[in-house]
Each structure stands twice: as C-alpha cells, then as structure tokens.
Amino acid sequence: MDSFKDKLNSLARTLGKAVPNESEYIDYKTLRKQYEAQANQEIAQLQQQSKKQRIEMLHGRSDLNPRWTFANLIEDSDDVVEAVSIAQSFIAAHEDKAWREAGSHMMIFYGDYGRGKSHIAGAIAHQLIDQYEVTVLYRQLSTLLEMRHSAYDFGSQDNAGQKFRAAHQELLDVDMLILDEVCVNETVLKKNSQSWLGNLLRQRLVNKKNCILITNHNLGDLEQALGRYCFESLKEYDTYKVRFSGPSRRKGLTLDEEDQVTSAPRYQPNQVR
To answer: What is the CATH number of the domain that holds 105?
Structure first.
C-alpha cells in the first residue's frame, strides 16, 4: 500500500508540480519564520510607499515653492547663517513630544525685500513635512484679506462666502501656517482686518498650532500696522524673532545700451509744451 507521502508525490506529479526530495524538507518552525520575515518585508515596503504618497500629498497641498530648500540656500551673510541655525534648532525640537505639546510657537522673519526670508521659511516647512509629516500651508496675507472681502459680496454667484469659510477652517487646522507679505505696503491694517487676523492667531494659539510670519516692517512698524489687539496675540506665542539685514539676493534688471543713452529727448504723456 502506498504511504501518505507517496500519495502526495503522485498528486504532485498529476498536477505538474515538482516532487520534493528529503533534502529539501523544511520543518514547520523554520518555514513559519521565513513566511513571517517575508510578510514583514512586504508590510514595510507598503508602509514606505504609503508614507511617500502622504508626503507628496502634503507637499502638494502646502503651496510651497519647491526651490525653497536648505540645499538651494546660499549662506553668504551672518544673518542668513544665524537664521539657518535657529531654523535647524526649531526643526530638531519637533523630535521632543513634550516640546510640541507645551504650546504654540511663532517665528517672525523681518527685513527688507530679497533677503531670503521666504526661502528659509519654505525650507523649514519642506523639512518638517519630510521628517515629521507636518501639515503646512503657505499664504500671502493680502490674498487672504482680498478673499475675505469678496466673501461679503452677497450678490456674488461664485460661492465666495463658502470658499472663504472653507479656507478659513484650513487656516485654523493646519499644523504650520506661513503668512508671507504681512502688511506689505500697509502702514496700518483696517480695523476689521486687524480683528480677523488677531482672532485667527489666538485660535491657533489655543489649539497649539505653529506659525511663521514674514514681513518687511521692523517690529515697531509691524506693531503699528497690525494694531495692538493683533500684535498682542503674537506675544502669547513662544516667539523666535529673526532679523534679515544682509544684501538682497535677487538679481536686478540691467538696462540695455540703448536705454542708457540719455541724449535724445524722450516722449512724456500729457506733456504741456
């Protein structure tokens, strides 16, 4: 009578399968370990792919300039070197759960145009997304205020009010909010804008959300432009102030040779002769 093993071998031949020999026999414990290792490897690969997809989605939703990275930053002045050092310390602090849960943190970057304020803020955001999957939103304050004013146009047919409410909720929920061009070309914000921004910052403070504010004003002028109510909300945060005073890194426009010739009279509109 055929043994059980012989029957299995016969079935394997019928199905066109290879018949294992004695030397290929693997005990149950070893086989189980092999399957577990293979399963763990596949799970790790899926987790890595899922993380990569989440990070790509976070980068896409942030509206950050992809060129704003530390790798693309030229540390050619003392203020930039200091700003990068503070930025790296700020990023490293996110490793400490107690620090993250202790309260809200505010970085204020101020200085003239073209000094690298937005670049470094973007570099911080990119690295926080990559390392800690922090949700980030980059917005210019003037754009938000224009959207807010449009929301009060009750005759509008484009659902401006609903769009602004959704945008406002996103401003409240995101982990890191970067507000650029704060009070640009503004000596003083309108009172209702001051109140709206102050309330936004206070609500983010309560929810332990972090912010970066970027402005061309010095701190004294910023206080005047934001108004006391709004500026007081900044003081409630654990605040890091970084002043940018180095040379502008933006390339200037060069005049063509024909533009530099001043001997010929030039046309001036509405000129009285």
So the answer is: 3.40.50.300
